[in-house]
Amino acid sequence: MEIQITGISGFVGQNLAAYLTQSGDTVGGLSLRDASWKNNVNMQADAIIHLAGKAHDTSNTSSPEAYYKVNRDLTIELYNEFLNSEIKDFFYFSSVKAVADTVITVLTEDNLANPLTPYGKSKHKAEQYLLSKELPAGKRLFIIRPCMIHGPGNKGNLNLLYKIVEKGFPWPLASYENKRSFLSIDNLNFLIKEMIDRPQMKSGVYNFADDEALSTNELVRVIGESLSKSIYLWKVPQPVVHTMARVGDTLKLPLNSERLKKLTESYVVSNAKIKKALGINNLPLTAKEGLTITIKSFNQHS
């Protein structure tokens, strides 16, 4: 297969390109930064995987227009090029945040979208446009909604937890009971490859997540096991923690309200639809196995 990837220089792009190449596919990058990018679209490609986008800015310094310009407008332009080409498949990497910022039970593809942030809203607007267009015969559209992606070389929100356990500090948020879905880069790569290689698979919207959801306390334990470190779970009263987070908002400390929410909220994402479509019962890695690989890579590169 010949595959063109936008955002190929990013974490997901680099890993996915390497995985597909090792699997025998021909992979090329498409940069959307230059206004002349339309001249560089590979019309001979079998698929376009659109990863490029403006990520959620946890410091909340980006303007809403910046999200819409990249996540909505560029996606629309690229999709229109796809519709007028001979390329068969279009993969759009959206986000679970295009649907919900908070999940009470389990997020499925049937949940009604109610994004609250400019990031989520811009992703949702792009989705709406893509789904509104009639697909020519022989073409497929896949809208991928991944939850938090991790892997070697990408610490993200795991970095704060890692540093706390590594330095032997107690985990002060043990009073929060939650469940959260993660997505290892290995499972993501596997799913995309399977979808590309199955021409009988139908277009659709698919959540990407590992098979199991873990609590933050369980995640701290996984980090401790990976580092062979003792862990200390402190149940600091939640009102005290929220006060500390508000101070962090003002002083730009590692623990702020945004990060506190990410570390303690429940956000469980179902991957049942994509597994049913592929006819599989389990992804290659369990959530714990994937996280252990990621965490051990931090120690190797620290």
Task: Give an overview of the whole structure.
The protein has 302 residues and is α/β, with parallel strands linked by helices. Helix content is 41%, strand content 14%. The strands form two sheets. Strands 2-1-3-4-5-8 form a six-stranded parallel beta sheet, with helices on both faces. Helix 3 links the parallel strand 4 (89-93) and strand 5. Helix 4 (158-166) packs across helix 6 and helix 6 crosses helix 10 (287-301). The radius of gyration is 20 Å and the shape is globular.
Poorly predicted runs: none
Overall CATH architecture of the domain at 2-146: 3-Layer(aba) Sandwich
From the helix content, strand content and strand pairing, which structural class follows? alpha/beta
Spell out the helices and strands N to C: EHEEHEHEEHEHEEHHHHH
Write the CATH homologous superfamily of the domain at 2-146: NAD(P)-binding Rossmann-like Domain
Shape type? globular
Q: Total strand count, please?
A: 9
| Widest sheet: strand ordering | 2-1-3-4-5-8
Tell me the fraction of residues in β-strands, as a range.
5-15%
CATH topology of the domain at 2-146: Rossmann fold
CATH class of the domain at 2-146: Alpha Beta
State the end-to-end distance.
37 Å
Determine the fraction of residues in helical runs and give it as a percent range. 40-55%
Largest sheet: 6 strands, parallel
Mean pLDDT across residues: 94
Q: Give the radius of gyration.
A: 20 Å
- How many DSSP helices? 10
